[in-house]
What we know:
The complex is a heterodimer.
Chain A: H1 2-7, E1 37-38, E2 40-42, E3 45-47, E4 51-58, E5 63-70, H2 75-91, H3 96-112, H4 114-125, H5 129-150, E6 164-165, E7 168-172, H6 178-191, E8 195-199, H7 206-217, E9 225-227, H8 232-239, E10 246-250, H9 253-262, E11 269-273, E12 279-282, H10 288-300, E13 312-316, H11 317-332, H12 352-367, E14 371-374, E15 389-392, H13 399-402, E16 409-415, H14 418-425, E17 433-437, H15 441-450, E18 455-458, E19 477-478, H16 483-488, E20 491-492
Parallel strand pairs in A: 1-5, 7-8, 7-10, 8-9, 10-11, 12-13, 12-17, 13-16, 15-16, 17-18
Antiparallel strand pairs in A: 2-3, 4-5, 6-20, 11-19, 14-15
Chain B: E1 26-30, E2 36-41, H1 45-64, H2 67-83, H3 85-95, H4 102-123, H5 129-133, E3 135-137, E4 143-151, E5 154-158, H6 166-177, E6 181-185, H7 192-202, E7 211-214, H8 218-227, E8 233-235, H9 241-252, E9 257-259, H10 274-278, E10 280-288
Parallel strand pairs in B: 5-6, 5-8, 6-7, 8-9
Antiparallel strand pairs in B: 1-2, 3-4, 4-10
Amino acid sequence: MAARAARKTVPAKKTFTDFGDYAPAPESAAIGRIQPRYQMYLDGAFVDGGGADLTTVNPGTGEPLATVATAGKGDVDRAVAAARRAYERVWSTMPGAERGKYLFRIARGIAERARELAVVETLDNGKPIKESRDVDVPTASAHFFYHAGWADKLRHAGLGANPTPIGVAGQVIPWNFPLLMAAWKIAPALAAGNTVVIKPAETTPLSILVLAEIIADAGLPEGVVNILPGAGDVGAELVTHPGIDKVAFTGSTAVGKQIQSALAGTGRRLTLELGGKAANIVFDDAPIDQAVEGIVNGIFFNQGHVCCAGSRLLVQESVADEVIDKLEDRVSTLRLGDPMDKNTDIGAINSAEQLARITELSATGDDDGAERWTSPCPVPDRGFYFPPTVFTNVSQSMRIARDEIFGPVLAVQTFRTPDEAVSKANNTPYGLSAGVWTDKGSRILGMAQAVRAGVVWANTFNRFDPTAAFGGYGESGFGREGGRSGLAAYLQPDAKDQF
Amino acid sequence: MSRLDVAKTYKLYIGGKFPRSESGRTYQVTDGAGRFAANAAQASRKDARDAVVAARKAFPGWRSATAYNRGQVIYRIAEMLEGRRDQFTELVRAGNTSSTGQRAVAKAHREVDAAIDLLVHYAGWTDKVAAVFGGANPVAGPYFSFTTPEPTGVVGAAAPQQDALLGLVSVIAPIITSGNTAVVVASQDRPLPAVTLAEVLATSDLPGGVVNLLTGSAAEVMPHLAAHGDVNALDLTGVAGDQRAELERAAAGTVKRVFAPPPDVTFSADPGTARLRAFLEQKTVWHPTGALSLAGGGSY
């Protein structure tokens, strides 16, 4: 590393911004048609809840965005009862082909209101408009379209000749991909014939309530989907409600463990998609420029608010200096700022609370003796922002190498041999994803087999598709979303195939 | 003058070896008629932990053995069991509550035969798991993506109290078929077929540590496996309903996969795939396909 430090005294090569800045290209907030207040969606109607209204904040500015009704005493009971009625009377008995047609309608509805949804998502979440526009919204629509096609083909799902729905699903989703996570949860549940009560994250309730309008406009029978905004207490009541047959949770490992523990002995089905601390492994024969793009995408996509983020860079020692230099040069060109600006690469941290957590965890890196590099990019003076940060001289025992930071903070470690890379990559209780960068085909496949992770991206990173199963090993959770194994999470196997 | 039998000391099976319990404890096993049959080792927490270490050590080799090889090894277990059919029939018969008469012998025979046939069934599964439960993902982009099942790792299992041999094989076989390794607590009251099965495993080319068999009390041992940080999954087949919640709570501490079938499973029924699926992870791999004109255009 000493040599690297010496070389860094030479000025970095000029970047675009040295030749003059981009003119702002903001998307119009008016397209989001943000209402002053939103209601819950329960039994086919938009209604007030018994809880106190919450105020959702635009993280890009720190200003209040809208108020939202929340679930209070009795609302979870009402929603579960509505979902049960809809399950028994309508949804579980409807021919699969008809169910599928509703899902196709929802897929189209999302696509038709895509631009509006992208704006709502960016205003409420803080992610760059280009990400909500190009990733979140289209992938959400694709998820409904994919699962729509399953609805009349369940007997081909690999669970015997006559698989059946499970019943009422209670689902809790996080704030990092609010609409996309809603789609990941609702689409397979409905395709398999289940009904849903779902709670969005406290800080990002808006896009799913626009989805509720799309669902209502699609004519989905009342009670099939019920949406209850609220805080963690609503989620806790939902997942432990005795009227729920199946629980699906995406969020932190700590809460996932609480849910698994709370459901112990109940026999209720559970899938968990929890945290991660993915290793992104760069070998010396990798195409370095592409690898740098992949490292950037891996950790700075969505401000690092990604459970499968490539938050640990493992780089082979012989190319470490080159990779880190190029990485820092490249990261210096990333544009941090107004999430609504179409030029923005890195948007806002979702909440003041998360910003504090990232700040605190990063500080442990300094305390533990790692070397911090921060992008020199300008940081807006209002809203919640954290500049891209890279720690070098990181050892395995440091918190920045072990804990999920869930922010734009990369911990870099080096390795000499493939075996060392594998043992470092697997030295974590998590196991959600991993990246491998090398030109050697056999090494790609060998590494893909050796790392304990549910998704391995080779010479790419952060790719998602409804046809491709996504989910973790170990403390990153169990169960999959997407593909046939994702569908299986919402089906009861044929009686002959249960034991 | 009649010859005196050479009685066997029944021990644990850990890492391919037959140790006594580290605790030095044994318990008396009686036959179905209540007569003394043998002393069995009473596994302790330390034995369970040793078994987990052995299972973890064996995991990389067993999971990366070819599916064809694993199938042959499991088939070999069936062969070895077939060769000892009469011995197992006698052990199973003696342990059953109604243990005398032709019908008791016939019943024990059926159980042993079913156990052998089940092993043959799973021997044929090893090289089909990936095709049946995995596949290619037609993703909407220039990537080749596939999802393939992998073993979850070390499985802690409680074999059923009844069906001392068939139940035990029903638990073990699907776990190891897909490449997992196992620490299994045998039927407490009827441990002798399990210890004898260990002798079969030890002579079947099954690498040491792939299956570790503990005798003793599941109620004592299972909580240690449920809370163990290096156990990936639990099979609660042999755990009574009222004891499952506590184990499942302990399992949540490290997000273990838990398989908890109804307590009244009929092991002679045609096996489904639930036991195989319970201990599989799905791994999705992506790689760019690039944009070669070879892929779809006319310019070769």
